[in-house]
Each structure stands twice: as structure tokens, then as C-alpha cells.
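Recap quiz, item 2
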Amino acid sequence: MDAVARHNVKLSGRTGGQPILFAHGFGCDQNMWRYVAPVFEDEFRVVTFDHVGAGASDLSAYDAQRYSSLSGYAEDVLEICRELDLQNVVFVGHSVSAMMGVLADLADPGLFDKLVLLCPSPRYIDEDRYVGGFSEADIDELLESLDSNYLGWSSAMAPVIMGNEERPELGQELTDSFCRTDPDIARRFARVTFTSDNRRDLPRVTTPSLVVQCTNDAIAPVAVGQYVHAAMPNSSLVLLDATGHCPNLSAPTETAEAIAVFVRERALAS
Amino acid sequence: MALSQAALQAFYDALLDDDAENLYERLPCGYLTTTPDGTISKVNETFLRLTGYDRLDLVGRRTFAELLTAGGRIYHETHYAPMLRMQDKVREIAFEVVKADGQRLPVLVNAALEYNAEGVPILIRIVAFDASERRSYERELLHAKKRAETSEADAKTLARTLQQTLIPSTPPYIPGLDVAAAYRPAGAGDEVGGDFYDVFQVGKDDWVVALGDVCGKGVDAAVVTALVRYQLRALAVQLPEPAEVLQALNHVLLKQGTDRFCTVVLLRLRHVDEAWVISMSLGGHPLPVLARRTEPPTPLGTAGSLLGVLTSPAFHETNLRLVDGDALLLYTDGVTEGRNGLGQFYGEARLRASVADHAGSAQTIVDGLLADVLQFQQGVPRDDIAVVAVQVPVNA
């Protein structure tokens, strides 16, 4: 199956415009970008997609081996870019997808023009003097929390989610399936997300990068955002007034503005 | 009818007691109001009682998410908050609230996001139901589900392992003859089928080919299949004629007291004076197909009784001297009784046509037939399929 269908890729915006690729994080699907992506449609070719296992992606394409590390997900991002023949891409990754962007950039240098890391964390678990914000036990608790909250998920729901091909923009079906997927996949994705460690990858990124940090983010605290910024030689840091971990939903205007300023920087300079 | 004075008074007292304040504070569940970013702005008595917090500890000081376990906080940020933003409400979310004393309180949470007239989110209303007992019940269910899944996986492995013992572990081989075989379990192959085949030597230039089908599936059937297979091996050594072997096998099955009958085709192949001579007997089994170079494929043999049913069964013997290029195909009814989407049987006519189409070697016949039968059933066989072909090479 091709990557575009596998990932339920959606294209909008200006044909021939610079591509801006939005990658959603752990938990929900590409609808996370619903209020941010449209802001870029006048100028950019806007690409959104679902990670395999999320939203309306092809669940049957879930390969536990491939997705046992973030590299598998990064490879997906590259496949989407190749298939759509995207070049000079602005990559916007939220949460765990920020690190997928870092890995994709290192795997295929030059593909990305700029990297936007929204609420990134290279390592969620505390280690020695590094403070990620969580302990191993916390992650076990999360898995338990996922288990309790997927009780209502049954195999009968899978066709509803997977067969949701013509997603009405605000349809009931969509909102019901938003943030819901096969519990086994959710567990595995949670484990990969919260046990990965990409701290060593950060200094190798030379692509201009923007770290967008929220105030009071329970998942990626300010200190972590500062760490990412300090570790990436060609990065800048923006601290939003927005609180929480999903400013793309809770403060879309502020989030889009921060991204827009960064991606237009060079256009203004040149 | 007029109420008595006392009853009326009690009615007013009750009304007084249930004013809006009490309705809120004593609601039999925790009830909180937070700002859109989660800071608690109002909380009822029930929540304070359930969690042991003082109102002053919470209002204006803590967010709802901060009261959760770390794992719950991640779930809150990655699932609950986005859902609430996207759908304006969430239902039946399982969290654990960390109480003032550090203990945990499992709760089920419903929440709703409210907007002002301009469409700006202004507050979140949250109700939290004590779900301690329900949660332990759910945990038990989850454990039971995991155990069931493990057992199922084990059973599948067991079925496959058991199945492998019912057919030879290596491809059949008879010197001077071309032999091929195929086995395909029904459906997804998660259950042990009753089909089997075997090819073994009993003396110099003296070989036996057996193929059969024990009725039913599962472990019970597999036990009988194993018994039949080993009995055939033991009996064939003592008894020279296939019909005698089937008589003896029938006796064994009756003595065994199993209610599972079976069908067998038993072939004895002897290499005599540079030629292969066969004697064959059938017990309730479909007639094999003989394919000669000069004639269209035809059924060979005489039907005999089912095994394990009658006290005086009848088994007949067919003897034939094979010539170069002769092929004999043994199969189970999983082939002919395969059905397509229209409910049609694959049948003997298609079987013979397939054998003719794929003439060449034992392997081409077996492979071609298996592919045809699977395609006829859209790749998912309803019943087990076992096929063995023997052919005298043309240049032998």
C-alpha cells in the first residue's frame, strides 16, 4: 500500500507553494492541526497525515517491528515526502513527532528547509541530572491508564474508524474516533514515545529549527524546551503564553503566529 | 385531599434542605469547575470529602490535572484535553486522583467545556464518580482478557504443533517413483484438523502410502488421527494386503470405543520386475484418480465401508500394474467438497480436469490442484485438504 493511502494524507493550500508538513503527536490524529494548518493555506502547500495506528490510517499496516522505535515513524515521514515529491519542506512536529522530524532530518539531510518542534521532549524519563519530568513507574501508570480507558474499544469499532474514508470535517464519526485506536497499538506507541531517548541526536541537526514551548506543560516542561534549544546549534526558542501540551488546540492563533514568523523569516530577509 | 399539617411541614423542610447550595455541595459525586486551562475555581463538598483536600488547597491553586497520577496526567494532556477541545465534552474517562494523604481514588470523569457568547471557552465542568469497586472489577476483567488471549495463542501454537505430528516432517520420498504431497488446514489453520497422510517403507521395494480423514476437528480428533496413523504403520508391517490392514484397523477403532469414524485410502506399492505394482483398498474414502498418458483421468478402485462403525465391514482390493507416466492422486473430501461463493461444490469433474491440466509430474499435479481448490474457495478452505500424488517417471 502506498504511503499516501496508508497515512490518510490530506493536501490543501496553494498548489506549487512550499510544502509544510504537519505531524501529530501521541494520542490523537491529524485533526490536532485543524485550527493551525488552515492559516498556512494561502501561501503553502499544506500536508497533514495520520501516523500508522492513529486516526484513519491503515491499521493493518501496523508492523510492531517497524514501529518499535521512532526511526520507523521517521521513515514514514520520508516516504510521504518522497511519494508526494516534496522538497524544501517545512516540517512541523508536535510532541513526539518533533523527534521524528529530527530523525527524518538526519536521515535525509536537505529535505527539510526548516524544523518546527512544538512541545518537544528528547527524553521523558529522568536520568542522572537530566530532568524529563517522569519516572519509569509513571510510564507504567500511563499504560495502565490507557488500558482502563480503552475498555470501551472493541474490535467492532475498528471498521468504523478504519472505514472512515470520506471524513466529514466535523462529523460525529470523526469525533467519536478522534483519540481512539486499537489499544494494543496505543500501548506500543506509548511505550516507544515515552521510553525513547533522542538527546544525542539534537546537536547533529543543522537545519534551522524553532522550539515552541508552552508555559506550564505537564509533559514537556519549560526546562526540557530550553534543553532542546541549547542542544540544537541552529535553533531558536519561543515561549508561548499558552498552557498545557496541545497549544495547537488550546491556543491555535498564538501557535500559528509563532510558526508563521519563523517560516517567513528568510522570505523577509532575502 | 388535604395533606396533614405534619406532612406539609415535612415537605417544606425537605424543600428547604434541597436548596441550590445543598444540591451542589452534597451532590453524590465530586463536582468541580475549572478555568479552560484547568485551574480549579470551584469544588463541592463531596469531592473534598472523597479526596481529603481542604477547599483552600485547591481553589485558585491547583489544576485538575495536578491532582492525577503522573500516568493520568499524560493521558489527560494527550487524550482528554484534546477530546474536550474538539468535542466540548468527554465521557467516562478513567483517572486516579491522588488524595491529600497520598492514597489513590479511582474515578470516572465526565466533563464539559462551556463558551461565552463570543465563542471563547470560559470554563470546564467536571464530575468525578467514585469508581473504586468498578475499577477493581475492570482490572479483573482486563487480567481475564489477557489470560484468555494468552491461552488462545497457546492453543493455536499447540494446534499447529500437534498438526505437524500428523503428517510426515519431510517431503515423502520413494526411490524410483515421483511422489508429492500437500496439506492445508481449514480456515486460518488455528484448529487441528482430522486429515493425515503417510508414506513409509515396509520392506525392500515395498512401500505404503496412506491418506485419510478422521471425522471432526480439535484435540479429540487429533488423538484418533494419531492412533490411526500409528496403527497403519504397525499393521502394514504384519499384514501384506491393504484390505486386511483396514479390517484390522476397523477392529482397533471399534475396540477403542471412540465415536469418531474415519476414512482411509491405503496403497501398497511393490517394485517387481522393473515395474511398480499397486494393491489398494478403500475404507469409506473417495476413489483416487488415475491419470495415464493415453487416457483422461478416471476414478480408480471400489468403495469400502467407513472405518470404526460396522462390526462386519467390507473392504475390496484393486490391483494394478503401473506403466511409465501413470499418476495416481489420493485426496481427502476437503478437495471435492470445497465450495465457492455460489455454494457450488468443487466436485470430481473439476478435480479430474485439474489433474489433466497440470499433468507433468507428481508435484505439478499437487501444486496445480491445491491452487485451483484454494482459488475456488477464495483462498480460505472450509475443510482440511490432504493430497498425495505418485507417478512413475516416463524414462524409468
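Chain B is about 40% helix and 25% strand.
Chain B has a mean pLDDT of 91.
End of item.
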